[in-house]
Amino acid sequence: MAKSWHTEEPNADRRDTKPYDSTNIFARILRGEIPSNKVYEDEHALAFHDINPQALVHILVIPKGAHVSWDDFGARLGGGDCRLRQGGLLRRAQPGMVTRGYRLLANVGRNGGQEVPHLHVHIFGGGLLGPMLAR
Ligand code: 5GP
Question: 10: CA distance to ligand 1 center in Å?
Fold first, then answer.
C-alpha cells in the first residue's frame, strides 16, 4: 500500500501551532454551548463520544484548560501534572475496554493532521482494531 506522508518543506522549523482559539468546537463543548455525548467528567478533563466514530467505541478526552498541543500542556502545567489520566477514566467509563485492550491516538499540529485546535486524545476500542486505523 502506498504511503501518504510527505517530507518537510525547507522552512519546517518555523512553528505552526497557533495560539489557543477559544471559539474552537471543543472549547464550545466545554462551555456547554454545543451538546456532547459525555462518558466521564471531573475537574481536569471531559470525555465524550466522537461525532464521527472510527471504531465501535471512539471517545475523545480533552483537558479543561486552554491547551492546543502536548507542548503547550506540559509547558503550562509543568511535568508533574502533565497527564490526562486516561487509565482511571477508562476504568470508570468503559471498564470492558481496559481488560480487552484499546488504542490511544493524539494528532498534534499541522503535520499530525490535528483538525480541532484543543488538545485531545482519541480512545478507540470495543472490538479488534487491526494493525492501524484508516482515516
Ligand atoms: P483531530 O483530527 O483534531 O485529531 O480530531 C478531531 C475529532 O473531533 C474528529 O474525530 C471529529 O470527528 C471530532 N469532532 C469534530 N467536531 C465534533 C463535535 O462537534 N462533536 C464531537 N463529539 N466530535 C467532534
Answer: 31
